[in-house]
Amino acid sequence: MSKNNPQAIRGTQDIFGADAEAFACVVETFERVRKLYRFRRVEMPVFEKTEVFSRAIGETTDVVSKEMYSFEDRGGESLTLRPEFTAGIARAYLTNGWQQHAPLKVATHGPLLRYERPQKGRYRQFHQIDAEIIGAAEPQTDVELLAMADQIIRELGITGVTLHLNTLGDADSREAWRAALVEHFRAVKDELSKESQERLEKNPLRILDSKDPRDRKFVGTAPKIDFFLSDEAKAFFKAVTSGLDAAGVEWVRAESLVRGLDYYRHTAFEFIPDEGSEAAGKLGSQSTILGGGRYDGLMESLGGTPTPAVGWAAGIERLAMLVGDKAEEPVEIAVIPISEVGNLRAIEVAQDLRNSRFSAEIFARGNMKKRLARADQAGAMAAIIIGEDEIASGQLQFKHLGTGEQSTLTLDEASERAWELRLDRDVEKFDSHMDTLEDAVNSLGDED
RNA sequence: GCGAUCGUAGCUCAGUUGGUUAGAGCGCCGGUUUGUGGUACCGGAGGUCGGGGGUUCGAGACCCCUCGAUCGCCCCA
After folding, report:
1. A207 touches strand B (CB under 7 A)
2. Of A210, A212, A211, A205, which Cα lies nearest the Cα of A182?
3. DSSP code for A221
4. Any atom of strand B under 7 A from CB of A6?
């Protein structure tokens, strides 16, 4: 922190310890669940030609107009560090002829970069998990995609978060609605907030979720999208909502949810913490945890043939803030050489244990007291102690750190004891898990 | 990009209206019969008080600039 130590770039983070465990937990859960829904893994470049993003996302959006990390490479070409996944995946779909795999379900995760003012839950380099279904126009596609999002959030143990759902209709519906909104707000332009007066030109849909009371006054009476929806668009939305009900995904209608990027059509959604919930408190002023929608127009704006698609992305950091502390796994077996003479034997024993799939660590710093204390602190089930006597006899001291009981064993016997201890521990874990489940069920009964 | 608050040992913080060698807890290292743990006790290392400049006889405390974090706006994951 002091002196001449180099500082990290603003808005970047060095994630470590419990935070890193929570981060990994999110990624692991995502990887596990995405396989249940049979999304295929893809790896994408972290940068693209600038036009990939500017054409896909829209020149006038904040992301493109002021948040991109763009630079010229040595060949004079304008490149941009990815601010999102969707545009790059769409580009890959076109350049690699992935039409042959349509409907294509893909998933990925990794870092994104946006030049923004950092805050809690908001960074210049942040990380997302991302899922897309390309080449499928059916509303069931949206349902499956959302069901997966819902399951990931549930399996992470996150509560107090609800799916907010809206439809923007097809291109014509959206245009007609937009025109009506502009007309509605232009009539009262002078009474709107300064921001919304600007939005009127750039992004009128955004006025709908303004928090300014001056704007809110006119939002209630603003024209509703439902009035402009074509019959097809209505039927599409109805199919999505009834599909979500069938899948058991809870949702609420959010008529003013519009999403910032130009490419959205039909379904638009965000998972948002309920007001006043614990989750909302943990996120600071950030609200959206996961967001996305249908982007049927995107492929065309990149020069491809019209291709329907839906997708979402979720902030790993934001999800990690909600999963609670994840402790690092304790070590199973501590290997303790008593003095330098035990060092080599300790290495042999530790390797043998690791080859048998036990986590093992050698504790060889400080005196005997410190070594055992450290082993204990690391959560070891048992310590294997190796001194001169043991090297002479070819046996080991095996100390159970729970009971303190210690015995002289061969390596094979020690390994066998380790298996028993692991089994005991797992059974115990299972029991306590069952107890908490039972308590939860009982308290549910009390409430009703 | 705009507005506000904050920045003291690895971590969490205390430092009276500016006054002498900047403190605590935890952590770390060593020790309390040199082959044995989670407790207790003793000792030690570690800070030019985010950085730079200024006011003053004197600044961690006051002023300016800068960097960073946090909060609100904008926007978003």
Report:
1. no
2. A205
3. T
4. no
CB A218 within 8 A of CB A185: yes
Q: How far apart are the two ends of chain A, measured CA to CA in Å?
A: 54
- Asked if residues A359 and A332 have their Cβ atoms less than 8 Å apart, the reply is yes
Mean pLDDT of A264-275: 90
Contact of A34 with A52, CB cutoff 8 Å: no
A354 located within any domain? yes
Question: Based on the domain organization, do A287 and A375 belong to the same domain?
Answer: no
Total domains in chain A come to 2
Same domain, A420 and A286: no
Q: What is the pLDDT of residues A344-392, one digit of tens each?
A: 999 999 999 999 999 999 998 888 888 998 898 888 999 999 998 899 9
- For residue A1, what pLDDT band results from cuts at 50, 70 and 90? very low
Reported confidence tier of residue A309, pLDDT bands at 50, 70, 90: very high
Q: Which window residues (355-374, chain A) lie with Cβ within 7 Å of strand B?
A: 365-370, 372-373
Is residue A55 a part of any domain in this protein?
yes
DSSP helix/strand/coil, A264 = coil
